From TrEMBL:
Entry EC number(s): 1.5.5.2
Protein name: Proline dehydrogenase
Keywords attached to this entry: Acetylation, FAD, Flavoprotein, Mitochondrion, Oxidoreductase, Proline metabolism, Transit peptide
GO annotation terms (biological process): L-proline catabolic process to L-glutamate
Subcellular location: Mitochondrion matrix
Principal localisation: mitochondrion
Domain Proline dehydrogenase: 120-415
GO molecular function, one term: FAD binding
Start-end of Basic and acidic residues biased regions: 8-24
Keyword Magnesium: no
Underlying gene: Prodh
Region (Disordered): 1-24
Keyword Transit peptide annotated: yes
Pathway it works in: Amino-acid degradation; L-proline degradation into L-glutamate; L-glutamate from L-proline: step 1/2
């Protein structure tokens, strides 16, 4: 827990002013509770983060040696202190919420994220009235080639005010709607915390460069919702740098989150404007029980869709948006990481309707090694890029992971029986046809 409470916050009593979702909580210090399907890393020290980076580098090398156009997955909580991800996530969420509040004041409540456009003049007046910045000070924020050309400011223009060139400890003040007080977006970092943040970014950079050299695509895994805004933002910065010619860096979107579609559409639009290749892995999500328990106990809105059906709808909606983008620009790429046969069939049908050929390799599929081979093999035989996700590590760490996967996929045994029946039918067919060693 000590690694999740900033020294500056202790000194200033700042932890109490943090939003509930983005505070470190003793009861959830061990992030394995309620997580049945994901690897969890804990921060020990910087040397341990370097060890994790070396493991990821070896994994990239192994992927390069075993397949063309391979993938390697990394987790950002393995590469630095989670406290930074908590704090930066809070910054991004507050900043976005502030935009939505101003949009509501301009009569745009309820619109989709990308349809909200603030009039620059009114925005500058609002910032001046709130005492955040004078009109003269804020005028230069929304000028230049891409900002405010139309006299309006959208969410992407707004987000660009917090970019990789902004020193986090000098971020703007925003109003706390509960207290009516102006507060800094982020409590100041100590010098050591600033260094920890920079080391995390350096490790990400090292991995991205190795992946580019080796021709391996790097998938940044999604994690808990209170880390995810920062993880996505840092991944976006890597995409801007490394995805100029092809999609090397892939972000992961968890479709059980209520905000998944907004997140996907905003990031795709940014890739359009800036001209880089959008890369994503779509998953349903791995932290549901823990997320719900944490939200209920601590007292903030549950970030998860209310039903499995709603999550399915969200998955297909996000996927359809990306497939449409592939059709129109050919600069988007998606891994459909799913064991759900209906989702795979949906993807195949939409690819056919949109004229996306498997040989373009813009759409690929992923299943876990040892699971759902009845989906994987026919896809591969039909010419679709399909990958097996391979867990690795010491036996005592990998076996619990695999058992949790079996628990997560409650229909696993049913599918295993079906797979066994299919194999038995194929075995008998080949035996009777006299072509035991050949499918033809």
């Amino acid at each position: 827990l000590s690694s999740c409470t900033s020294a500056a916050e202790k000194e200033m009593g700042g932890a109490e002013r943090r939003e509930k979702q983005y505070r470190a909580h003793r009861g959830f210090g061990d992030r394995r509770g309620g997580v049945i399907s994901a690897r969890t890393y804990f921060y020990a020290d910087e040397a341990k983060c370097d060890q994790h980076m070396e493991t990821f580098l070896r994994c990239i090398d192994a992927s390069s040696g075993s397949s063309v156009d391979g993938f390697s997955a990394i987790k950002l909580t393995a590469l630095g202190r989670p406290q930074f991800l908590l704090q930066f996530s809070e910054v991004l969420v507050k900043w976005r919420r502030f935009f939505h509040q101003m949009a509501a004041e301009q009569g745009q409540a309820g619109r989709a994220a990308l349809e909200m456009k603030l009039e620059a003049e009114k925005l500058q007046e609002a910032l001046a009235n709130l005492g955040i910045a004078t009109k003269a000070e804020s005028q230069h924020w929304f000028t230049g080639e891409n900002l405010g050309v139309s006299g309006t400011v959208d969410l992407l223009d707004w987000n660009s005010l917090i970019d990789s060139r902004t020193k986090l400890s000098k971020l703007l003040l925003v109003p706390n709607m509960q207290t009516g007080q102006l507060e800094p977006l982020l409590s100041r970092f100590t010098e050591e915390e600033d260094l920890q943040m920079k080391r995390m970014l350096q490790r990400m950079d090292t991995l991205a460069k190795r992946a580019t050299e080796k021709g391996v695509r790097l998938m940044v895994d999604a994690e808990q919702s209170y880390f995810q805004p920062a993880i996505s933002r840092l991944t976006l910065e890597m995409q801007r740098r490394f995805n100029r010619d092809r999609a090397i860096i892939f972000n992961t979107y968890q479709c059980y989150l209520k905000e998944a579609y907004d997140n996907v559409t905003v990031d795709v639009e940014l890739s359009r404007r800036e001209g880089w290749h959008f890369g994503t892995k779509l998953v349903r999500g791995a932290y549901m029980e823990q997320e719900r328990e944490r939200a209920a106990q601590i007292g903030y809105e549950d970030p998860i869709n209310p039903t499995y059906e709603k999550t399915n709808e969200m998955y297909h909606r996000c996927l359809d948006y990306i497939l449409e983008e592939i059709k129109h620009s050919r600069k988007a790429n998606v891994m459909v990481a799913s064991h759900n046969e209906d989702t795979v069939k949906f993807t195949l049908r939409r690819m056919m309707e949109l004229g996306i050929h498997p040989s373009e390799k813009k759409v690929c599929f992923g299943q876990l090694l040892g699971m759902c081979d009845q989906i994987t093999f026919p896809l591969g035989q039909a010419g679709f890029p399909v990958y097996k996700y391979v867990p690795y590590g010491p036996v005592n760490e990998v076996l619990p992971y695999l058992s949790r996967r079996a628990q997560e996929n409650r229909g696993f045994m049913q599918r295993a029986n079906r797979e066994r029946d299919l194999l038995w039918r194929e075995f008998k067919r080949r035996l009777l046809a006299g072509s035991f060693f050949s499918p033809n």
